[in-house]
Amino acid sequence: MDFQTEPIIHVQEAGIFQGLDAVLTNVTFSIEKKEFVFLIGRTGSGKSSLLKTLYADLPLKMGQAEIVGFDLSKIKTKEVPFLRRKLGIVFQDFQLFPDRSVAENLFFVMKATGWKDKSKMKNRMAEVLMQVGLADAASKMPHQLSGGEQQRVVIARALINDPEILLADEPTGNLDPDVADGVFKLFQEINKQGTAILMATHNHDLLRKYPYRVLKCERGQLLDSKTSDISINTSY
Ligand SMILES: Nc1ncnc2c1ncn2[C@@H]1O[C@H](COP(=O)(O)OP(=O)(O)OP(=O)(O)O)[C@@H](O)[C@H]1O
After folding, report:
1. How far does residue 224's CA lie from ligand 1's centre (Å)?
2. Which of 5, 9, 50, 80 could be joined to 32 by an S-S link, Cβ 3.0–4.6 Å?
3. CA nearest neighbour of 198 among 227, 175, 167
4. Is the pLDDT of residue 179 over 80?
């Protein structure tokens, strides 16, 4: 056993619910620092529900789950913003404010997460935009950017508070294949710099090309390529 690593996410016999309905039961897995993990499964199999439970958008009603030091079985509503500060969350639909520039979009999140010093905010904004390859986009409006560029801004926004893990729900789902590939490579670079990534995807090409660990939602269970044979070519 490697005592150097400690999990960022540790889930033990959890139930994932949508209201009264159990979507996944007996969910057990850990994600270590710096890991890259795909989350796959058919439409409706529970990928988003699992991610939502991890960022405390859905309550954990059964079992144990710890993420970036927060116990999801005990977390209080007022603690959720502190949990979200330690996570980066990226969705399929870009969810930028359309009437605000890139800089204003990023500043909005900074203010909401406790940043106050203007010059530090500007420096951090420049850093994250540089990191995603958009150093020249601060003054642009979202509609002046391509889909891939908008998703890069969303990734920059998710990186602002230097999260230990990015939770990404179909981040390349709305992008053309070439653009999706570029955005995926950005996730890989971010991962190489030390951020763990849990990415829900339907993209078979990515799964075939990059042999990362896979978690698969199937028939109400979560399978793990660490412990089971997972077919990536069928049934989703
Ligand atoms: N807001 C909601 N209220 C009630 N049930 C929901 C809600 N969102 C999803 N569900 C149900 O929960 C189950 C899991 O859905 P979920 O969105 O987690 O699947 P998914 O694997 O992410 O699907 P997709 O690949 O289409 O995004 C489905 O049966 C779905 O109908």
Report:
1. 20
2. 5
3. 167
4. yes
Domain coordinates in residue numbering, the chain: 35-59+86-224
| R_g over Cα of the chain | 18
Helix axes 147-159, 102-112, angle to 10 degrees: 30
Task: Give the relative orientation of helices 147-159 and 118-131 as an angle to the nearest 10 degrees.
Answer: 130
Q: Which of 47, 49, 61 to mutate to test the pocket of ligand 1 (most atoms within 8 A of CB)?
A: 49
CA of 18 to the centre of ligand 1 (A): 8
DSSP state letters, 88-136? EEE-SS----TTS-HHHHHHHHHHHTT---HHHHHHHHHHHHHHTT-TT
ipTM of the complex in this document:
0.96
Residues within a 6 A CB radius of ligand 1: 18-19, 23, 41, 43-49, 217
Mean pLDDT for the stretch of residues 106-135: 95
pLDDT at 67 over 80: yes
> What pTM was computed for the model?
0.93
Q: In whole angstroms, what is the distance from residue 179 CA to residue 81 CA?
A: 32
Fold of 35-59+86-224: Rossmann fold (3.40.50)
Give CA–CA dist 106/127, Å, rounded: 12
Q: Rounded to the nearest 5 degrees, what angle is found at the Cα of 28, between the Cα atoms of 22 and 32?
A: 135
pLDDT at 3 over 90: no
Percent of the chain surpassing pLDDT 90? 82
